[in-house]
Predict the structure.
Amino acid sequence: TQLLEQSPQFLSIQEGENLTVYCNSSSVFSSLQWYRQEPGEGPVLLVTVVTGGEVKKLKRLTFQFGDARKDSSLHITAAQPGDTGLYLCAGAHGGSQGNLIFGKGTKLSVKP
Amino acid sequence: EAQVTQNPRYLITVTGKKLTVTCSQNMNHEYMSWYRQDPGLGLRQIYYSMNVEVTDKGDVPEGYKVSRKEKRNFPLILESPSPNQTSLYFCASSSTGTEKNIQYFGAGTRLSVL
């Protein structure tokens, strides 16, 4: 069974702090996605990374795909209360349409 | 507005009473999928469909049925619900083109089986 391990599981920080969330696997993925889910809603895609070593930035969020395409990280700079939510990583294998493997998520709480 | 619509959003039922959760998407996506989300277990895929009349089991298909008679609809059927099917359910869809694997999720259906 392919697994995506996310860490930490829970994270509670003060507004303005920086944080990093990790997503690790022993499997190689053709692409990896990060989603954010707010209470009462479905996950919403933040970014897709495809190339080993790729770095993508989305305002204060920086996403990195590991060189071997087995792991990824999400770094948030100067976290805001609006960043609060459940962050999910999901890995896809080439040729397998839509069969994403999801991590269990990191629940982030940013306090004002 | 592009969206995936699930109904109902909340459902309380009793063991053994058949129920259907509907899912509809307006993006002409070929691929549709059902997930359940449970604390500590994350999102697990129940069934998916690559196109009309094509369905396949995901990781946790036991106790569920699906059908895909039309491209836009992908209902999830629980013939005889049991308490261990109490969960938060999500429907998702994606295209098969260059943006395959980017899944658009519905808002979820919270099911309680008593």
About this structure: Chain A has a mean pLDDT of 91. Residues 66 and 105 of chain A are 18 Å apart (CA to CA).
